[in-house]
Amino acid sequence: MSWLAVLVTLMVSAALSGLLSRYRGRYALLDKPNARSLHSKLTPRVGGLAILAGVVAGYACTWQDWWFPGMASALLALFLVAAVSFADDVRPLPAWLRFLVHFIAAILLVYPAGFDPALQLLPGVEWLGPLWLLRVFSVLFTVWLVNLYNFMDGMDGLAGGMAVFGFGTLALLGWSAGSPAYAGMVIVVATAALGFLPFNFPPARLFMGDVGSGALGFLAAFFMLLAERLQLFPLWLGALAFSPFLVDATWTLARRALRGRRPWQAHREHFYQRLVQSGWSHRRTTLWAYALMLKCSLLSLLAFRVGSAGVGGLLLGWMAAVYVAIIVYVNARERRPLSKVEET
């Protein structure tokens, strides 16, 4: 049944992505390039609907195998995030309204479902704070994942690739921890993103839009918190798998805030945007991002396999050094003049 779900998910996501990438009718939602865009032509931005349709189709095949306690409220929360995100795709909504819905969805996820375990935020370090504080952290963590995924969806193939690598890693971690049901739930999301990715890879013919990025961010938070709740693997392992997005978005928005700029305002200051503006092609930037995502995935799996807090700490330290090197490289590259080849 799990293989049937994967196959159905891939077929639905790919077929619908193909249709949406070609649709230019009356109700087409097209992304128009502006001064902050990295693309130069009108592109449909509703690919997230194909991803969600694939997920729903896959879950419909095996719903009796993955119905964990609290799933009803979690699905309602996912619907709220997807609905407000799609509404924002149709007509931009005020930031306060989007955040309000995101907080309501996060509360629906955390409180009724009971996502309040002791959290292991670092290898060998378990946070045993008051129950209310753990829940507040889980709510804020969910809201942040929803929004950072939206912030990072600004270049062809990037958010879709992160979904394939990130959710694929969570699925392998769940399988290794002895929960085929958890692994089956997560691999469906990775497969839905995989069906969409060929239409989003540079040069993109379809964008996922807020409806896709918001839903994927919510699902990433949900599955990481669920793994903690089921005691499959600690939160920091999931965060490591998604660290290319977590680090870029957190660093960039903190940098903007310290400079007195509005963090939520649209901009082109993420690392991937700065690399493109400094002369890298979209395809080159995306492929190097995939290499980073793969490395984080392998390190997450290695840390789980070894099971040593000391080794986990060393791997996190290694990745921290890698991210520092990336920051230094991007800053240095921005200071050098573009060559004639890069300018063309």
Write structural notes for this entry.
It is a single chain. A hairpin with a 2-residue loop joins β3 and β4. The strands form two sheets. Strands 1-2 form a two-stranded antiparallel ribbon. α1 runs parallel beside α7, α5 packs antiparallel against α8 (209-229) and α11 (271-277) packs parallel to α13. The longest helix has 27 residues, at 309-335. It is built from 14 helices and four strands. With 344 residues, the protein is mainly alpha-helical.
Short description:
The protein is mainly α.
How much of the residues is beta strand, in percent? under 5%
Please give the largest β-sheet: 2 strands, antiparallel
Number of helices: 14
Could you give the order of the helices and strands?
Answer: HEEHHHEEHHHHHHHHHH
Gap from first CA to last CA? 51 Å
Strand order of the largest sheet: 1-2
Mean pLDDT: 88
Assembly annotation: single chain
User: Helix/strand-derived class?
Assistant: mainly alpha
E-strand count: 4
From the alpha-carbon coordinates, what is the Rg to the nearest angstrom? 19 Å
Identify the notable features of this structure and list them briefly:
344 residues, mainly alpha, two-stranded antiparallel ribbon, 4 strands, 71% helix, 3% strand, disordered C terminus
Layout: helices, strands, pairs:
Blueprint lengths: L1 H21 L7 E2 L11 E2 L2 H20 L4 H20 L4 H19 L5 E4 L2 E3 L3 H22 L5 H19 L3 H17 L12 H21 L5 H7 L1 H16 L12 H7 L4 H25 L2 H27 L4 H4 L1
Antiparallel strand pairs: 1-2, 3-4
